[in-house]
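Memo subject: From amino acid sequence to discrete backbone structure tokens
Action wanted: Derive the backbone structure tokens from the amino acid sequence.
How to read it: Take the token row as a discrete description of the fold.
Attached in line: The record itself begins immediately under this heading.
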Amino acid sequence: MADDQDARTVDFLYEMGLLKRLPRTGWVIAGVSDPESVADHSHRTAIIAAVIASSEGADPQRAAFLALFHDTQETRTTDIPHLGKRYLKAVPNGEVTGDQVAGLPGELAGVIADAVAEYEGRESVEAVCARDADKLECLLQAVEYREQGNGHTRAWIDTSLASLTTESAKRLADLALARGPLDWMHRARKGRPPL
């Protein structure tokens, strides 16, 4: 039995590797020639979730963990753009996760399924922080693509900004819109501390 569970665990890890190769579809639609992957997005989302949760008095580790698993279903559903969701009847993310973790050791399957359920339910402060992190990461990425010359990212900035609920995420978004994506580097090169 353990051999079967170990084999299924390895299969799950390979499946999660697909996220590194799966581009974020919205950026393809916006004309970004080399868009970030779902894994790229999830990595920064997890970091942002920890930052927001810390500012909101929540558990940063839990928020980061929830954010880490928030798009893992896309190995099976792909990254369906917002417009496409109007025309498709996708199963809930929790159901996709249930299929993904079937056959994993029970405790591991429960940890992953519980994280997805908590994120999707948005009832804990950590889940709210993780959701805001998802939106703030999209805003940051849109600003970065805009700075690289893509003039089609305004809708992503606007919808991400409108979706934020925590005060911390709103403050960070306002600052992100007022600063350039490489301001930190120019300050660091001159030996100046961050503002």
In short: The two ends are 56 Å apart (CA to CA). The mean pLDDT is 95. DSSP finds twelve helices and no strands in the chain.
